[in-house]
Each structure stands twice: as C-alpha cells, then as structure tokens.
Amino acid sequence: MIGLGTYAFLWQHSDQVPEPLSLRGAFEATRALDVDLFQICDYAPLETMDDAELQDAAATARDLGITVELGTKGIEPGRLERFLRLAEVFEARLVRSMLYGPDSRPSLAEAEEQLRSVIGGYAASGVTLALETYEQVATADLVALIERVGDDHLGVCLDPANVVARVERPRDCVELTAAHVKNVHVKDFAFARQPGWVGFTYGGAVMGEGLHDYPHLLETVRPRERGVNEIVEHWLSWQGDPETTIRTERDWTRATIEYLRSTS
C-alpha cells in the first residue's frame, strides 16, 4: 500500500511557514490525494498530546478512512512500550524506530537486550517493530541483530538513501535487508557539485530523476507481493521562501505517488 509520512509534510508542519499544517490537516491532505495510509513519524507534538487529543486524532483518521502507522527514534523499553500503547489508540499495526534515540546510543549487545524485553508485547498485540536502515549502524550489523532476536514482529524499515553517509551502496543495503523488510521509506536522492567545485552535496531529488534504483528494490524486496507498505517522504531543502518551498514539497509528493502508481 502507498502511504504518506510526516516527512512528506516536513516544511508544511514547520514553524518556518506562516500557518503550519496540523496533524488533522495532513490526514485531510492525504485523503485528498486518494491515499489512505499515513505514517506519523518523528512528529514531536504526538508525544505531548493528552489522552483526549490522541483519541480525537485517531477518530479523525478513522473518519477519513486513513490507516495509521507510527514512528519514533530509540529502542529504550519505556519508549517502545509507550508507542505500543499509542499504536493501540491509533489501531496501528507498525511502529518504525531506529537503534539510536535522542539520548540513547546502545551497543549492539545492549540493543539486543532491550529489543528482547519488548518484542513479546509487540507480538502479542499484533504490532510490528521496524528498525530503519541508517548511517549510525552498519546494515549488516542491523540485520544480524534482528536475526539474533528472531521474532517475525521485528524487522527492517528500508531506507537505502540513509546508508550512503556510511559509504554503503544503496543497492547492497536493499539486498542485505530484503528478507526482513517490513516497511519502505520512498524517496529519491542525488549528488550535486558545490559551488567552486570543491565537493558535493547529497540531498533529495524528484522521484525517478535521482540515483535510486527503485525498480531493483521492487524486484528484490517484492513489497507489494508481501504486503509491505511504501511510505512517501522527501529530502527537500528550503527553497528560499515559504510559498515556493510548500509548492515544491506538494509537487514532489504528487510526483512520487504518480511514480509508485505507474510501477504497480
């Protein structure tokens, strides 16, 4: 299933624009694009909402026919247990996270212990925990950790763009993780020369126009055959002013949805 994530609305949510988009507004924009899945991922206000606000947000999603997934950073048991409770509120079946959180950088041994302590609760609730591929941890180490824990409710949120910062090839990341992928973050990426020809910048690109070999990912991971959701997000830099930035963000979202639909 194609979905949109908070990172597809990064600038629209930002306080750098005159009227930041609310979570309800993001749900409504998702529905307007004929998309019925939204991943609330690294969205800070979610963690400060009271019970009434959470119930209202969940009801809004249900009323609009939007299925919700959740996302956070870190695997401390307290954090993951809180997001399991949030998953119950939103009727979410997937929580995306990553090994390192704002205040936590566990060793692989510590990470294994933490994951073992919570994954039984996720399995009992029918919720999958998907750990994102990131430059913080080698992809091979992440896969080995998941295999040691050995629970089908623990897997990978595949984002091959991230691992380039670790000098890993996106294609290798896709192939290493394929058997364990539970969620895909969809964005294109490219390098561009810096002014003065003294190096490169690495950032986002319109889907299908950058370096991401998405057909290879589809062939290798087979997300649509396996019921793995594909969540649209972007690496869009500020475009000089709020109007241009928001317009470009929306254009990139539409382009990515069209690209994904064209490959189905």
TrEMBL record:
It comes from the Bacteria. Keywords: Carbohydrate metabolism. Residues 28-255 form the Xylose isomerase-like TIM barrel domain. InterPro entries: IolE/XylAMocC-like, Xyl_isomerase-like_sf, Xyl_isomerase-like_TIM-brl. Transmembrane segments: none annotated. This is Xylose isomerase-like TIM barrel domain-containing protein. It comes from Microbacterium lemovicicum.
